[in-house]
Design brief:
Mitochondrial carrier fold; elongated
């Protein structure tokens, strides 16, 4: 590793984007994973609210986002808002996969392929990283979704075919012998086999890949726009936080129908064609707005805090020879 003395620090360009080669990876990985998971833990209740809103038929259970939150808190307590949370713990691996693929592909596209557009490079790398992370995300998310609605499954699932997993659990004789999560895992496997854990994989990819294709360009475009209207010595980290929040809002709006499509395929267990037909018949234009507000709130806050945390972690883990060049 080169020492700081071997670099011309005065002529080194300002580091506004910290790349893979600038990082001490032994520090970066554990710190980044802890930061990301802390935010996910804080915002998990919004995922529960969003899932239930999108699974219900019209407004049969909850009238609004706030009504859903109050009802869950009142009738199920704190545990209801975190139902299925422990099952999502393996998703910490998705953060590891996403970060590695994203950063390495960014470096490849920039240095080996010669692309110079940061929004383009980031959106391509983010889309590929999101696709790879679905391997862990989809099965854990399916299990968590079934746990979220188990106590009120009849209101959220619908037909007998859709309720096969729930029906199996109600007759499994394991109510007080195993945890709900383990019972869901067993039921999904018994009803659908291994395929059950990857039901809706393509639909899930249609949510998270386009989400990245929207988020990253917006993230960098907003920063560029703010740079034009602010002093050069403005705090870059503030701009990054604002840009991430707006990117989260934009990606939520753009992909909300796909999110509703995904979760209904995975929980209702219907085909892609039947799910689309039912959604259009039952919800109409509400497919664009149902569950949107908790998604906007969750994704904007999550994106803002995670990106600020991510950038702080990168600054803290930058190699010594680059520290003086980092733009704060």
């Amino acid at each position: 590793m080169a020492s700081a003395s071997s670099f011309d620090l005065e002529n080194m360009p300002e580091l506004r984007v910290i790349e893979w080669q600038h990082l001490n990876l032994s520090m970066f990985y554990p710190t980044a994973l802890f930061s990301t998971w802390s935010v996910r833990t804080m915002l998990y209740p919004l995922a529960v609210v969003r899932s239930r809103l999108q699974l219900q038929k019209q407004h049969t259970v909850y009238r609004s986002t706030w009504h859903a939150f109050r009802s869950i808190a009142k009738h199920e307590g704190f545990r209801g808002l975190y139902k299925g949370f422990w099952v999502t713990f393996p998703q910490i691996g998705t953060s590891l996969i996403y970060t590695t693929v994203y950063e390495r592909l960014r470096t490849f596209l920039q240095t080996d392929m010669g692309y110079s557009s940061v929004p383009f490079i980031s959106s391509m790398a983010g889309g590929a990283a999101a696709m790879c992370s679905q391997v862990i995300f989809v099965p854990t998310d399916i299990i968590a979704q079934h746990m979220m609605i188990y106590n009120y499954a009849d209101a959220f699932v619908g037909s007998n075919k859709s309720a096969s997993v729930v029906h199996y659990m109600r007759s499994d004789g394991l109510l007080h012998k195993r945890t709900l999560g383990l019972r869901v895992i067993r039921a999904v496997y018994k009803v659908d086999g291994l395929y059950g854990f990857y039901r809706g994989f393509i639909a899930s990819s249609f949510v998270y890949v386009p989400s990245c294709l929207v988020f990253w360009p917006v993230y960098y475009w907003v920063q560029d726009g703010m740079k034009r209207f602010r002093k050069e010595d403005a705090v870059l980290l503030v701009d990054q936080g604002v840009a991430a929040g707006l990117g989260g809002i934009a990606s939520s709006i753009a992909t909300n129908p796909f999110e509703m499509f995904r979760i209904r395929i995975q929980v209702h267990r219907t085909t892609y064609r039947d799910t689309l037909a039912l959604m259009m018949n039952e919800e109409g234009l509400h497919v664009f707005t149902k569950g949107l507000w908790p998604r906007i709130v969750s994704n904007s806050i999550y994106s803002c805090i995670v990106m600020i945390g991510y950038e702080l972690v990168k600054r803290a883990c930058v190699l010594p020879e680059f520290k003086d060049a980092v733009k704060w």
